[in-house]
User: What shape does this take?
Amino acid sequence: MQEHTIDTRISPEVHLTVLSRAEVNKLLDTSQGGLYQLLHNCALAVLNCGCDSDDGKELLERYSDFSIKVIQEERGIKLDLKGAPAIAFVDGEMIKGIREHLFAVLRDIVYVSNEINDNPKFDMQSSEGVTNSVFHILRNANIIHQSTEPKLVVCWGGHSISREEYLYTKQVGYEIGLRRMNICTGCGPGAMKGPMKGATIGHAKQRINHGHYIGITEPGIIAAESPNPIVNDLVILPDIEKRLEAFVRTGHGIVVFPGGAGTAEEILYVLGILLHPDNAEIPFPLIFTGPESATDYFRQINEFVGSTLGFEAQQRYKIIINDTARVAREMKLGIRQVREFRRSKADAYYFNWGLKIASEFQQTFTPTHENMAGLELHKNQEKHQLAANLRKVFSGIVAGNVKDEGIRAIEKYGHFEISGDKEIMQPVDNLLAAFVSQQRMKLPGTAYVPCYKIVS
Assistant: This one.
């Protein structure tokens, strides 16, 4: 059944007020080389903010009549929307934050197409080229400023969490905001929205009128995690790998709340980077936290890390249970160490150039059935390389759970089959089974059918 929708035409207030004719034509091009489908899908996800669904395929089918068209006029551009979700409007007028996000999507799609893709300036097969592309995308989105002070806390965690866990994330955000730090998340619901909501209250009490709430996403996940309107700086990276690099390059510390496969992917990503020998001396505050009810969850995470990556990896994070003020104090102390370290090295505060990110964390991993079956999941490799391969396991499961292309691949070919050494696969199987039993794979009330199978 078609949902209630609205037709409208809107103009930009902040982002990208003019486009060339060539850019407009490419945005309207529905061919394989055109940008229309990318713009359509990302725009629909932004407009769907607040809807209780995390199924990218279902969203596209529910609003099958939705269309978006770029109108070029003498005084600038407008977006013509047909069949837009009514949830994005109040009394017929689009919510201002959602309108800003729509034009942020347009800005990033145009920039990546024109300035990054097929540009010899960026060698996307090299580590340096990928990092430079991430920097330029963030700079174009006005995320990077030379005057930046180290106070940006990245918050990771699940979109499918309990009410108690959500309120805890909100309280942590409040404590962070009281200490004059800013928030960066994946920009969606759950553990991504809670810290931002809390920080707005903390900032208000400190009379901080320009709190920074950065949302970093990518086209594959945005439909399942529609940006919440608290985000006042939204940026769309081309894929999950560049999105993750954007988090660790711009953030000064990371707080991890309970979550599912996506959160496990993020944990493995940051631990794999911190385990690289070149990063051994770089301070990077990393805190896992949740309410009392999350004790078993973090025990499982800690056991999984110990069983797969070892004791050294466990030493790179702190686990704090049910103490929101301590989380904020520890983060502020950790960021102070980051500041002192970067000052001693004459490194920038706004982008962590000194962090070594190996190419296995940067090259795009496409979770096809063949690629998932071919992952090297054995003990006989460097820990940071094992972390990179384990990250891909969870990245593929996220795709099969909530991304449009991943869901369609599972429907067509069946489960992803994942295999490796028993010492690796047993902890993976145990952790995934816990996520399923705790309803962390999909939103509560949604029946979960596993998209994966552990094979011997």
In short: The chain has three domains: 5-119, 132-345, 368-381+388-454.
